[in-house]
Amino acid sequence: MNIVVVGLSHKTAAVEIREKLSISETRMEEAIRQLLSYPHVEEVGILSTCNRMEIYSIVKETDQGVKEISQFLAELGQIPLNQLRRHLFILLHQDAIRHLMRVAAGLESLVLGEGQILAQVKTAHQLGVKYNGIGRLLDRLFKQAISAGKRVRTETSIGTGAVSISSAAVELADARIEDLPSKRVAIVGAGKMSRLLVKHLISKRVTDISIINRTLERSQELAREFPQLDLKLYPLEHMLDVIADADIVFTSTAATHPILDKNKLSPLRHKKSLTLIDISVPRNVASDVTELDFVQSYNVDDLKAVVAQNYAARREMAKEAENLLEEEIQAFVLWWQSLETVPTISSLRNKIEQIRKQELEKALSRLGSEFAEKHQEVIEALTRGIVNKVLHEPMVQLRAQQDVEARRQALQTLQLLFNLEVTEQAF
Questions:
Q1: Coil vs helix vs strand at 106
Q2: Residue 258 Cα to chain centre, angstroms
Q3: Cα–chain-centroid distance for residue 231?
Q4: Which H helix or E strand runs over 105?
Q5: Beta bridge partners of 209
Q6: 273-287 burial string, b = 16+ CB within 10 Å, else e?
Q7: Residues catalogued as catalytic
Q8: I need a labelling partner for 200 at 20 to 30 A (CA). Which of 47, 88, 337, 380 fits?
Q9: If we measure between CA atoms, which residue out of 194, 226, 57, 47 comes closest to residue 119?
Q10: In whole angstroms, what is the distance from residue 158 CA to residue 170 CA?
Q11: β-strand partners of 295
């Protein structure tokens, strides 16, 4: 058994590739079921965000498991595997453990230290459990990673003042557009990212903001969070009318295909300028909009320059987090390694329990049926207590042994001394 992660991120693949492999929550059950159908995949958890698609798995045989997961991704994105491989990264065992810890802590994010990724890791864990993809090993790994992410944010300064994708998008608009506070802004979508967009636009003194969303209820929820603003709310069918009056449009929806393209925007040729900033993956804005002279279009990959300005100052803060993560990684590795003691401990307990029962039956038969019936529970509890007391300390020491070779020698000694038949268990 081995832990592997196969995936891609903003570091290895452009948004054009990442969007093809994005998996929405509504498709997660189907994806997990398909991965579990492969012969070498035992457990699976999927982390799909705008900047990464990563599949964490427990595999029976590493090479075959990686091959099956890679093929799944190729089929998912409808990309030939020989082309997709150049964008994939593959991490095994301790490297895979370290990677998830770093992801949860925000150290692998486009925006170093950003907080939203921790919630996304939690969601990946919850969905993996819900759809029976995550078993004992990945459950422990994800929980340890979530705990590590929380520790990093509470015990270090990495999260202090961290920018998000939404704030970077607003910074990009501020850098590229003169007199941002005077502009008319439209936001398509009313989810978490849109809420953050509104928050950061307010910090730039922007007041003319329209929200376009499929459901009015969601837009109203967002508007209630910003009572100081008179947000204008519109249904999705009015999107082009609102955009016609806007100077800047941010898009942040869960649509799986572009909602804006050259054909839809062509009737707006009378406009002098329209800036589109798309922070969605899959993209909400088609690449052909750049063929229109009046349109300036940006996507999540264009935010890297904004983020780079923030990166150098935050890099020093990340060193604190790296040291803390090593503690969490070692804690998980020790737990993982201790699992090899389970078959021997289980076999020893079973053997001693059989001996206890046999000797108890002999003793009760000699005591006579009347005495045995009256005192059997007391004698049963006594013998169980003796067994548990005798076994407790050796078992604790065996599990706690950090020297792998010393632990294995102790296991072999126990197997030899007690003539144990040990069946290897899959964890």
A1: coil
A2: 25
A3: 33
A4: helix 93-105
A5: 185
A6: ebbbbbbbbbbbbbe
A7: 50
A8: 47
A9: 47
A10: 21
A11: 274
- Report which secondary-structure segment, H or E, holds 103: helix 93-105
CB atoms within 10 A of CB 150: 13
- For residue 225, give both structure tokens: 């969070």
Identity of the amino acid at 250? F
Q: Which two tokens stand for residue 364?
A: 């009760």
Query: pLDDT 10s per residue in the chain (427 long)?
Result: 799 999 999 999 999 999 999 999 999 999 999 999 999 999 999 999 999 999 999 999 999 999 999 999 999 999 999 999 999 999 999 999 999 999 999 999 888 888 889 999 999 999 999 999 999 999 999 999 999 999 998 888 777 665 688 988 999 999 899 999 999 999 999 999 999 999 999 999 999 999 999 999 999 999 999 999 999 999 999 999 999 999 999 999 999 999 999 999 999 988 889 999 999 999 999 999 999 999 999 999 998 877 776 666 677 778 888 889 999 998 888 788 777 777 777 888 888 888 888 888 888 888 877 776 778 888 888 998 998 888 888 877 777 777 777 777 877 888 788 888 876 554 4
Angle between helices 304-338 and 93-105 (to 10 degrees): 130
Residue 14 has φ and ψ, to the nearest 5°, of -75, 165
| Termini Cα distance of the chain | 7
Looking up tokens 């903001």, which residue turns up? 209
